[in-house]
Amino acid sequence: MRSVDDPDPKPFETLAVEIAREAAVLALAVRERVVGDRSVADMATKSSATDVVTAGDRECEALVRERLAERRPDDAVLGEEGGTAPEPTPGQVRWVVDPIDGTVNYTHGLPWFSVSVGVELDGRPLAGAVVEPVSGRVWSAAAGLGARLDGQPLRASALDRPELAVVGTGLAYDPARRGRQAALLARIASSIGDVRRQGCASLDLCSVAAGWIDGFYEHGLQPWDWSAGALIAEEAGAVVRRPGTVPDDGLGREATFAAGPALAAPLADLLRSAGVADV
Ligand code: IPD
Ligand code: CA
Fold this sequence. Notes:
Elements: H1 10-35, H2 40-43, H3 46-71, E1 76-79, E2 93-101, H4 103-108, E3 114-121, E4 124-131, E5 138-142, E6 147-149, E7 152-153, E8 166-169, H5 175-188, E9 194-196, H6 201-210, E10 215-219, H7 223-235, E11 239-241, E12 255-259, H8 264-274
Calcium ion (CA) binds near residues 98, 101, 201 and 225.
């Protein structure tokens, strides 16, 4: 929730979009350069995939950090590649950056990955931008000022029936946790309309904002995965639950959750009744 003393969030949205767009162009160029004339099948081998992710993540995050150092030198930055960063001081703006979200899609030639840039103040979201390098689509939001896809306002789904809902989720890299997540999904699968595992949490949240999917949940996401997308979903009218911020609502401390306003309660109940304690 925005505080009355917070700065105008619009310029932060504009800057987040500008920087994420520039990094998105770089993400494609890096993939082209590292992959060269290798086939997508070669790329998917572990070492090549690691090369392209490492180069893409590093170079894009370095670019974002460089631009922020020029334009917002007093702000804090938390990035996936930056290691542990000191907590921001009270009143200090923090940028939360995933240089490439959806890295498995990025390495395998699937077009669904993003550069995600969120902006927060004292733990409250101010603005966010999620840019898709392949399509060039730009998702963005500013706190209290709505969410947009390429400038057009977004609205989350009005569906209220879990049995008809298309629900997105994600799976961890850790195989043991992935197994527990798959077991949870199996427990709810026959009670929902359909399932998507799109491979990019920021764009899952944007998909909720657009009503392309009715709801989304995932356990174990990091702040850079959800910072921008959660605000975009929220500003589009979705009910959003960020991990680690709620005492115990029975969804599991590490749950990120977003759903259209009429679906949120029944979908959350379904997850609770399926048992999320071990996920
Ligand atoms: C991953 C993606 C994926 C989600 C994973 C994330 P990365 O981020 O967002 O959809 O299921 O939990 O780690 O590694 O591609 O930046
Ligand atoms: Ca990510």
